[in-house]
Write a structure and sequence with these properties.
The structure holds 2 protein chains of 2 kinds. Chain A is an alpha+beta fold. Chain A contains 13 helices and 4 strands. A 4-stranded antiparallel beta sheet of chain A has the order 2-3-1-4, with helices on both faces. The radius of gyration of chain A is 37 Å and the shape is rod-shaped. About 5% of the residues of chain A have low confidence. In chain B, β4 and β5 form a beta hairpin. Classes of the chains: A alpha+beta, B alpha/beta. The interface between A and B is large, with 54 and 62 residues.
């Protein structure tokens, strides 16, 4: 580019002065604005940079809705995974704090004496915080769900149950305790609930893995939707891209123009989807708290804990919403850039 | 500045539509590219702009073989060329001011820096009253002048104009030709594709490149 000089002075005058009487001027549409309107328009147009990719050329509203729905679903799956993961930690911690000792009735043995011996061993053991002996009636009551109410169990060899609360601070050596119990009371069986803990852990991991898979599928679907929309926008703006190329725009610059449009749409969709998900979790937490006293509420709480997201959960939902916008912008730029790079010069 | 050596072009497996083109454009030169409608003038300009690849031969632009250029180099060269399209190719969603400023905007210039230059150029082509207008409300002549202003805003070393006076009445066409001549005198090489003999007669000292039957004949 060469040195600047005034066009009118350099080229011997401006066209406008003589053109007013030309036939071209006569053909000009009768919409020439007034001076005041021109000055207002001048102020408005100068300093403004209209997006080079027209807003109307992108199926913006549809894309925003798709991104909002995808963000909402992704946030739901992530939130559900977080809640289950949190709840499973509570379940496992709670179950691991407890063990039970079952004492069966053996021929020739006094079960009450066995219960007393076992209790003495348990109370003396390291890491045991509390020992609660279920009475005969309480032990029999535990069988009621399986055998039915109103039965006389006096003649049945119903086992006795001792519930042991373990100390969080001092870990009990359950294997040693099991051996010690077996020596003192041959019919005593210590259950440390390890099987339950493992099953609960496995179930929680499965739920989290499924939620993660759903999350990934949603992200992939959102990426594909953005890719289709970007390609459609490129086809719709082919002429603009060609003009931009011919006036000297680099591929990167053109890709950035698309990125700006799609980033704005992605952030809008992400914001709507993320806000909706946050609203959903807040409402769910509120409703769950009102149901807590009911049996359904108890079941729900047992499964999902308090059925509400903590600060970490809301941070994750916010991050997902922001990531949806950023992903949209990044993907559109990359797609446009790669498409332009692939375009042969023979257009 | 620009040279064609035995350049040929065909689409697909058909016959060559341009054959054995051999000519050069010197710095600070002025030439008309002429020939009947459909002779291939626009196609030849597309070859210069690297919108089309020749099927044979070699095109050299600013000392570089266009076949060997990567995309960044193509972009750099296009920034040294101004082009006026036959169909104007103004972007309908931009104002006239933004259309004319487009070549500066795409190279990252700040609007406040190029504002005075663009306004002056718009005044030069008589469109200062239309800067906020969209192309859709402009007359053909106004669009033509806007397209010319856009081509000139970067002060190109080579100006390609495809039927630049096609939409203008003779009076305005003469004035525009004078502008091209002034531009040429200020150091820009100008190639005007036209089939308007009357226009060419107004500047008889210009070189004529005549396309006919896919071949180019040069009249110095």
């Amino acid at each position: 580019m060469r040195a600047r000089a005034g066009w009118c002075s350099r080229m011997g005058g401006c066209m406008s002065s003589n053109e007013a009487n030309s036939p071209a001027a006569a053909r000009r549409p009768a919409t020439v604005p007034s001076r005041a309107a021109r000055e207002a328009a001048l102020e408005e147009t100068l300093g403004r940079e209209t997006p080079l990719v027209p807003t109307s050329s992108i199926a913006g509203r549809s894309l925003v809705i798709v991104i909002a729905i995808m963000t909402f679903l992704a946030a739901l799956s992530a939130g559900a995974a977080l809640m289950v993961a949190d709840a499973s930690v509570d379940w496992r911690r709670e179950v691991a704090r407890e063990a039970s000792v079952q004492i069966r009735l053996l021929p020739g043995r006094d079960i009450e004496a066995d219960v007393s011996r076992a209790t003495a061993v348990l109370v003396a053991a390291e890491g045991v915080r509390d020992v609660r002996v279920y009475s005969k009636a309480e032990s029999e009551a535990l069988l009621a769900p399986w055998l039915g109410q109103g039965l006389d169990l006096a003649e049945l060899p119903a086992p006795r149950m001792i519930v042991v609360k373990l100390d969080d601070g001092r870990r009990a050596d359950l294997d040693a305790l099991r051996r010690e119990l077996a020596q003192a009371v041959p019919s005593a069986a210590l259950d440390d609930h390890r099987l339950w803990v493992e099953r609960l852990g496995q179930m929680a991991r499965t739920v989290v893995a499924v939620a993660a898979l759903v999350f990934v599928l949603i992200v992939v679907a959102m990426g594909l939707a953005v890719a289709f929309a970007t390609r459609a926008a490129m086809v719709g703006n082919r002429e603009i891209i060609e003009v931009l190329h011919l006036v000297g725009a680099a591929d990167k610059y053109i890709a950035q123009q698309f990125q700006r449009r799609f980033l704005a749409l992605g952030l809008k969709g992400g914001l709507i989807g993320g806000a909706s998900a946050m609203g959903f979790f807040l409402l769910s937490g509120y409703l769950a708290s009102r149901w807590t006293a009911t049996p359904d509420g108890d079941q729900l709480e047992a499964m999902f804990g308090r059925f509400s997201l903590g600060p970490l959960g809301f941070t994750v939902v916010g991050a997902i919403a922001a990531a949806a916008g950023l992903l949209t912008g990044f993907m559109s730029q990359e797609i446009v850039f790669r498409q332009l790079r692939r375009l042969d010069r023979a257009e | 500045m620009l040279s064609f050596e035995n350049v040929g072009l065909r689409y697909g497996s058909g016959g060559e539509i341009l054959s054995d083109l051999a000519f050069s454009v010197a710095p600070r030169s002025f030439q008309f590219l002429t020939g009947p409608s459909g002779a291939g003038k626009t196609t030849l300009l597309k070859l210069v702009l690297m919108s089309l690849k020749p099927t044979r031969g070699r095109i050299t632009l600013f000392g570089k073989d266009t076949e060997t250029l990567d995309k960044d180099a193509v972009t750099d060269i296009r920034r040294r060329i101004g082009v006026v399209f036959q169909d104007f190719r103004l972007l309908e969603h931009l104002t006239l001011y933004e259309n004319v400023a487009l070549p500066l905007r795409v190279i990252g210039r700040e609007e406040t820096i190029y504002r005075a230059e663009v306004l002056e150029l718009l005044r030069w082509v008589g469109l200062e009253e239309r800067i906020a207008s969209r192309p859709s409300v402009l007359s053909g002549g106004e669009k033509q002048r806007a397209a010319i202003a856009r081509a000139l805003i970067v002060r190109p070393e080579l100006l390609l104009a495809d039927e630049p006076t096609g939409n203008l009445d003779p009076t305005l066409a003469r004035r525009l030709l004078r502008l091209f001549v002034e531009l040429h005198k200020s150091g820009t090489s100008v190639v005007i594709a036209t089939h308007d003999l009357a226009l060419m007669d107004q500047y008889e000292s210009a070189r004529r490149l005549v396309l006919a039957d896919g071949r180019l004949h040069v009249f110095e």
